[in-house]
Amino acid sequence: MGSVTPSSPFLTRAMAAQVDIDRPGKIVELGPGTGVITDALVARGVPQDRLVLIEYNSEFCALLRKRFPGATVIEGDAYNIDRTLGHPAEGTLATVVSGLPLLIQPMETRCGLRDAAFRLLAPGAPLVQFSYALVSPVPVEGADMKIWTSPWVLRNVPPARVWVYRTEPVPA
Ligand SMILES: C[S@@+](CC[C@H](N)C(=O)[O-])C[C@H]1O[C@@H](n2cnc3c(N)ncnc32)[C@H](O)[C@@H]1O
């Protein structure tokens, strides 16, 4: 379910389009690889100093530091997002954007990432993930989430869709 080909500009733009730039807080990207989605985020207008990139491949991390000198690049495990980020305050992240090949992971790992991401995200803030599969890459069973999927992005190898997950805003 992973791909050796970086996501196309059509898919990266579709991912970046789901980020609400006006929402305050950090934008965390999981599995940025060479930075094709990061590039689309910056092109969309996200200041580099709002970006935190979690990538476990050290060569990619070195490349990301060169390409995006204003971003925070963390070499670490995105599935342990809370610990890898240094336990930030809950409910503070603006968006989590993921290029991780989630479907190759066991259900427990995917549920763990989903739950940790939603603890860290501000109420109503999105978790954005692309997938080549027909089924949701983020487990939906037992989670109170709103889900939106983009049309298929055919100009990507393989074709993919963007999935956006949000928890309901907490009433004041
Ligand atoms: C399918 S590639 C996506 C790369 C890029 N975002 C794109 O869309 O083309 C997945 C990326 O996730 C990284 N990755 C895989 N498992 C990871 C983990 N546990 N923590 C951090 N990064 C991980 C890989 O090194 C790779 O760069």
Features:
single chain; 172 residues; alpha/beta; 26% helix; globular; binds S-adenosylmethionine
> How many whole angstroms does the radius of gyration measure?
15 Å
Helix share, percent = 25-40%
The arrangement of helices and strands along the chain is: HEHEHEHEHEEE
Compute the average pLDDT. Answer: 95
How does this model look, in words?
- The protein is an alpha/beta fold and 172 residues long.
- The model has no long low-confidence stretch (mean pLDDT 95).
- It starts with 8 loop residues before the first helix and ends in a 6-residue tail after the last strand.
- It has a single domain (9-166), classed as 3-Layer(aba) Sandwich (Rossmann fold), CATH 3.40.50.150.
- The protein is globular, with a radius of gyration of 15 Å.
- The protein has helices at 9-16, 36-44, 58-67, 81-84, 107-120; strands spanning 27-30, 51-55, 72-75, 95-98, 126-131, 146-149, 161-166.
- The structure holds S-adenosylmethionine.
Secondary structure blueprint with pairings:
Elements: H1 9-16, E1 27-30, H2 36-44, E2 51-55, H3 58-67, E3 72-75, H4 81-84, E4 95-98, H5 107-120, E5 126-131, E6 146-149, E7 161-166
Parallel strand pairs: 1-2, 1-4, 2-3, 4-5
Antiparallel strand pairs: 5-7, 6-7
Helix pairs in contact: 1-2
The chain binds S-adenosylmethionine.
